[in-house]
Amino acid sequence: MGSLFNSRRHHKHAYYLIKRADLAGLTADEIEMIANLARYHRRALPRRKHATQQALPGNNRRTLEVLSALLRIADGLDRSHFSVIPTWT
After folding, report:
1. Is 89 inside any structural domain?
2. Cβ–Cβ under 8 Å, residues 2 and 38
3. Which residues does the chain have with pLDDT short of 70?
4. pTM of the complete model
5. Is residue 33 included in any domain, yes or no?
6. Of the residues 10, 65, 78, 87, which has the fewest C-beta atoms closer than 10 A?
C-alpha cells in the first residue's frame, strides 16, 4: 500500500493512509490496530515510547507485538514481494 508512494518508508506511509482512510464498519480501535500492524511489519519493533503504540489500549499492545511478528515472517517468506504466496479465502 504505502510502497507506491514511498518505498523506503512505506510502513510509515501505510500507517498514515490507513488512519485517514474511510474504513466503514470498523471501530476506531480496529483501525488503530490495522494501521499499527502496517506500521510495524518492517524495520522497528513496536516500542512503548512510540506514539503510535501508545494510542492503543493496553491489552492491544501485546496483540500488536504478536501479530506484527507473524506479519514480518509472512512478509519475509514472500521475498519477491509480488504476492507469490497464495491467500485462501
Report:
1. no
2. yes
3. 1-9, 43-50, 79-89
4. 0.68
5. yes
6. 87
